[in-house]
Amino acid sequence: MAQLWGGRFTQKTDDLVYKFNASISFDKRMLRQDILGSIAHAEMLGKTGVITAQDSEAIVKGLKGILDDSLSGKIDISEEYEDVHSFAESVLTDRIGDAGKRLHTGRSRNDQVALDMRMYTRGEVCHTDELLAELMHTILGIMKSEKDTVMPGFTHMQKAQPVTLAHHFGAYFEMFKRDRSRLADLYDRMNECPLGAGALAGTTYPLDREYVAKRLGFKCATANSMDSVSDRDYLLEFLFALSEIMMHLSRFAEEIIIWNSDEYRFVEISDTYSTGSSIMPQKKNPDIAELVRGKTGRVYGALMSLLTTMKGIPLAYNKDMQEDKEVSFDAMDNALSCIKLFDGMLGQMSFNRDRMLKSAAGGFTNATDAADYLVRKGVPFRDAHRFVGEMVVHCIEKNISLDEMSIDDLKKICDKAEPDFYEAIKLSTCVDRRLTKGAPGAEAVDAEIKISEEYLASTKTLKDPLDSIEI
């Protein structure tokens, strides 16, 4: 097949070189973006008189036909073409003749691929934001239903203080809230249109770049033609945002895996989100959570790969930059799947409240409250800390808990201890006394839930402008 750039060459490209250079196997997923960008470009060429209105109309009509046929499955993207751009232009020319050859006037594949990738990424940013919002709705539902579910909080993987399941899940709600904030910032920063930058130095044709930008839902055209074709900052930012999302999911997944173990039995994962063993019939494995944890490294790898690719590239476009797509598409696909599957797993998960409460009762999670009790009795905190430490040693020796110590034994360690000590260290008291903003007490959690509800109600999900473009 003749190449779009073949006029300069007198020898046929080596087959291995052609396959090594081609990108259609992975950039064909951008056909919709490529055609919509080409339609806007063709409309602008006709509007500015660069090509005739008749040719512009023929090009637009032909491109719409290709898009319709690809969506309906009437045509497949053949990998005999070098890339998605040459596929679309070649099919267009086959269908409408010479008018199709005028589509590329005032345009380079450099700014064309920059546009396609930016529009595709913009759509994925929006989709990611929508899925995160759905996940956060699921988390909020669990927070509402588990406000009174007492469980141990941990530091250093050791029981520390009693909290509630609602409070624990609220921490992840905040993480994903920050993730959505990063996506919103990225969306605003990346939403500039590079088409019209040409290969690197613009063009001599009187293009109306702002018309194309507005037509495709961008806020404006990019400011510098060399930066326009060589910029992949927005993609690196998105890969970082996805990496942070995956890190949050992986932390969450790790806790679900631990809680699902027989030693903890805090949660029961639905059969629909579990798998079994080929040899051990009793097993029900948390494979979805484990795969989410595992795929996190894959997304990290995409970020490091593109950072490494971009670090030594001089201005402007270089073929190295073709390497942005495969790793990025893989990261996007995996991150979106992980968010959706994790949401589904959480939504069908059940919680063993009695087991959580019993676990919180062990491990001296009320020791800090015991020290606070003594402080309220006038004991300096550092002395109270030491006294309770001695109480814990006594309990370990006797294999009892703090609330099982006799009042006489308590007074031997600290004479400020009174019978109201036992009420002060009850788990329900320990939790409910924590009323500072962001704490696990009932009033604080109610306030947190209200703030979270207001956030989800007032924060609209990002929308891909291409979904509302009329062509």
Structural topology:
Blueprint: H1 15-21, H2 24-27, H3 31-48, H4 53-72, H5 84-96, H6 109-145, E1 150-155, E2 158-164, H7 165-190, E3 192-193, H8 209-215, E4 220-221, H9 225-230, H10 233-260, E5 267-268, H11 287-310, H12 324-347, E6 350-351, H13 353-361, H14 367-376, H15 381-398, H16 407-413, H17 421-424, H18 427-432, H19 442-458
Parallel strand pairs: 3-4
Antiparallel strand pairs: 1-2, 5-6
Helix pairs in contact: 3-4, 3-6, 3-8, 4-5, 6-7, 6-12, 6-19, 7-10, 7-19, 10-11, 10-12, 11-12, 14-15
Structure in words:
The chain is mainly alpha-helical and 471 residues long. It folds into three domains: 6-105, Fumarase/aspartase (N-terminal domain) (Fumarase C, Chain B, domain 1); 110-204 and 229-358 and 456-461, Fumarase/aspartase (Central domain) (Fumarase C, Chain A, domain 2, Up-down Bundle); 367-425, Ribonucleotide Reductase Protein R1, domain 1, CATH 1.10.40.30. It is 61% helix and 4% strand. It has a two-stranded antiparallel ribbon with strand order 1-2. Strands 3-4 form a two-stranded parallel ribbon. Strand 1 (150-155) and strand 2 form a beta hairpin. Helix 3 (31-48) runs antiparallel to helix 4, helix 7 (165-190) runs parallel beside helix 19 and helix 14 (367-376) packs across helix 15 (381-398). It starts with 14 loop residues before the first helix and ends in a 13-residue tail after the last helix.
